[in-house]
């Protein structure tokens, strides 16, 4: 009797939590729909692309406990493949270009993952960094990337061959849809049977092995999903700026995505979104102010402050606050 | 000949860079027994555990499960055979709820563990069984707590429930009462006795009163090799054991 009581209470609590989350996401979607009428769409699209990139990274660090220091390689692979295909084949529609870029990153993620996944902690981070650096030099040397110049003037084309994406507003809604789909996939992955095993591996890998799970394979699948979504972010970004360049492949980019994720709150679904908005917003504001040259210093200081005083990031700290005061 | 030994080792040896941690160990675990592995600190008990469950590869020797060699299987495959281990330090998933801890052990059988596109609500079908298992170890009221918030003794009880969820044929428990107060020790002894019904248990244990109360058979390890084997009365009467084990027990008590 007592047992069924607690389980019905739990069920009710879970239902109300789900309702709250549903309302929150609905609100965010409405916000996303009206945002381009308030702020400059290109700026918003940049945030969305990086938010997707950071969310993909967070899936790995926050929910599988894997710190990749080479995620720039996947962003750049998506960007370059999409940029190259759309520039070279004028008949190709943008969604197919993006799909090809994403698939390219999935394949690269599988290769990286097979080489790196057996290593733990810092060794995993170092191997992903080394592999990403190899990709960087590959991108400089290859003719199809435009080397130091990158690929310019990538055509945005017409979605499904029907809707022109020339106007920033039209493109914004396309990018927003891509983001929502990517984010939904991450949200589902985290809250799936697979996500449960992933969390168990993050919490205690030897125990997960002793329960019969082949943990390397689970980590590999998570790595490939994360790489694919990072590639999707890169591919979409190419469409926004009509540009794919070496900056995407540089290890700075791998560092920046770590910064965004930690600042917003690692292991929380909304953290990367908040973190990337903050970082992109600051970069944007500072680049127009006399402090422009100090962007890295200021971001670095904020990062140090975050690690020292609010380690679970903005969303993480907010969640703690809510938990302390309302439960 | 009936297969009375569920787990056997022949000449099991592990060397680390010239240091022999486990030396030619022959173990025979009888089906249905609670079998203890005891010995002074550094005798190689945990290393034997790690070898049996393939968390370490043996340097030499053979491991047989129901007469079949399992020496070259992977750790997770050993678990799937039904040999499930626990760890010296309580191994729980701290930032998952108590219910989720047990459910993650149950869910492998659903065969949907790679389905990242499916809702976790599909796991609700396992909740009832998970609650039953929690009730078995007296944790039914903690089902929705975050595991990190449980006191140590309850974490160990949860670990046992999680292990039981796999319906193991052989449970390997590494110091299940380590770091517990007397009250918790009694509880865990009762739980192990209950859980051992219909299965085989191999446990590493320091607490000799626990060993004397629970175990059918005892193997004493010293310096990586088997020193003696038998029931509690014969082992505790063996002068070599008294010298090697009881002699060092005094120092252990000082440490504690």
From TrEMBL, chain A:
Keywords: Cell membrane, Membrane, Transmembrane, Transmembrane helix. The chain crosses the membrane at residues 22-39, 45-66, 73-92, 98-117, 122-140, 160-186, 257-282, 294-314. It is found in: Cell inner membrane. It is a multi-pass membrane protein. It comes from the Bacteria. GO terms for cellular component: plasma membrane. GO terms for molecular function: branched-chain amino acid transmembrane transporter activity. The keyword Transmembrane applies. The keyword Oxidoreductase does not apply. It holds the Pfam family BPD_transp_2. InterPro entries: ABC_transp_permease, LivM-like. PANTHER family: ABC TRANSPORTER ATP-BINDING PROTEIN, HIGH-AFFINITY BRANCHED-CHAIN AMINO ACID TRANSPORT SYSTEM PERMEASE. This is Branched-chain amino acid transport system permease protein.
UniProtKB/TrEMBL annotation, chain B:
This is Amino acid/amide ABC transporter ATP-binding protein 1, HAAT family. The lineage of its organism: Bacteria, Pseudomonadati, Pseudomonadota, Gammaproteobacteria, Oceanospirillales. PANTHER family: ABC TRANSPORTER ATP-BINDING PROTEIN, CONSERVED COMPONENT OF ABC TRANSPORTER FOR NATURAL AMINO ACIDS-RELATED. Pfam families: ABC_tran, BCA_ABC_TP_C. Residues 7-248 form the ABC transporter domain. It comes from Modicisalibacter ilicicola DSM 19980. InterPro entries: AAA+_ATPase, ABC_AA/LPS_Transport, ABC_transporter-like_ATP-bd, BCA_ABC_TP_C, P-loop_NTPase. Gene3D superfamilies: P-loop containing nucleotide triphosphate hydrolases. GO terms for cellular component: plasma membrane.
